[in-house]
Amino acid sequence: MDVKRIAYTVFLVWNCFAYTICAQNNQVLIIPSANPSNSTLLSDYYMGRQTGLSLLLRNTDTNQPLVQGYLRINIEGQGVKLQTGSYAIFPSIDLMEGSTVNIGASDLAVYFKPQSLQGSIGFGVNQPNVFPEGFYQFCFELLEKNTNRLIGSMQCVQVNLSYIDPADLKLPENGKTILFSDSNKIKFQWKSNHTDVSNSEYSFSLVEFEVGNKVSETSFTKAKAVYTVKLKEENLLYGTVLPLLQKGKKYAWRIQTVAVNETGENVPFKNEGYSEIYWFDLK
């Protein structure tokens, strides 16, 4: 047999082998999807609250009327590398020939439990199970239940993990002029940007400036403190029992949001939960 024929035979054998392996690895089609922005708290995933992440699995193998498998998940980004551990035991995902199964947040929850993962995480806001903000690749494979053979090739989706925006300030409007006669009934109002967190608290801070002085984050911290209070509500009526405001002064205020979820973790907020700063003149 000449060299060309040997080479051609090797080529055919290799292609046949590669095709067989490829076919075996693609018995199940995996289609992952995610919301544009997702939670940075790992607990949101293993509690099944991260509803934006899901998979569609389809058994495309006409020779297998029933495929039983489990997922292997890889997460990489921002210095974090996580993978479902080889020692972990997961419930079987059953796929009939030609059927499509949706894997939602509650189905994925077991894969995100800390004991199911191996790798590194924990740089965010001094908490061990908080992802740093940024883009990540969430990748999924399907392994056969009894043999651990790869039957669904890796498919990935890019996910942006971001902290929650602080509260939006509403009233009084920024830069507003308020008459001194109305200073005993100023309504402060804000609106939170987080949901599904019952244990929330807002720190209200009001400071005093001379008219004409510029309001900024730096000057706010150095300004004369007038009134601070912690509230559960998203509003405050500034009445006569509170420190008297002075005519001809400028006042600035902001809110810091602190929230704790059902697992006892502090919810991560951008800018440490501090809102922007609003100011008003009292004339």
Quick description:
With 283 residues, the chain is mainly beta. It has four helices and 18 strands.
What features would you highlight for this structure?
about 280 residues, mainly beta, Immunoglobulin-like, 2 domains, seven-stranded mixed sheet, five-stranded mixed sheet, about 40% strand, elongated, disordered N terminus
What does this structure look like?
The protein has 283 residues and is mainly beta. The protein has helices at residues 3-25, 42-46, 105-108, 217-222, and strands at 28-33, 37-38, 54-59, 66-77, 80-84, 93-96, 100-103, 117-120, 134-144, 150-161, 168-171, 176-178, 186-191, 199-210, 224-231, 235-238, 249-260, 278-282. Mean pLDDT is 86; it is low at 3-24. The chain has two domains: 15-161, Immunoglobulins (Immunoglobulin-like, Sandwich); 168-282, Immunoglobulin-like (Sandwich), CATH 2.60.40. 13% of the residues lie in helices and 42% in strands. The protein is built from four helices and 18 strands.
Low-confidence stretches: 3-24
State the share of residues found in helices, binned by percent: 10-25%
Run of helices and strands: HEEHEEEEEHEEEEEEEHEEEE
Judged by helices, strands and strand pairing, the structural class is mainly beta
Number of domains: 2
CATH superfamily of the largest domain: Immunoglobulins
How does the major sheet shape up?
7 strands, mixed
Tell me the distance between the termini.
Answer: 103 Å
Q: Which architecture name of the largest domain does CATH use?
A: Sandwich
What do the pLDDT scores average to?
86
Give the class-level CATH name of the largest domain: Mainly Beta
The CATH topology assignment of the largest domain is Immunoglobulin-like
The share of residues in extended strands comes to 35-45%
Radius of gyration: 28 Å
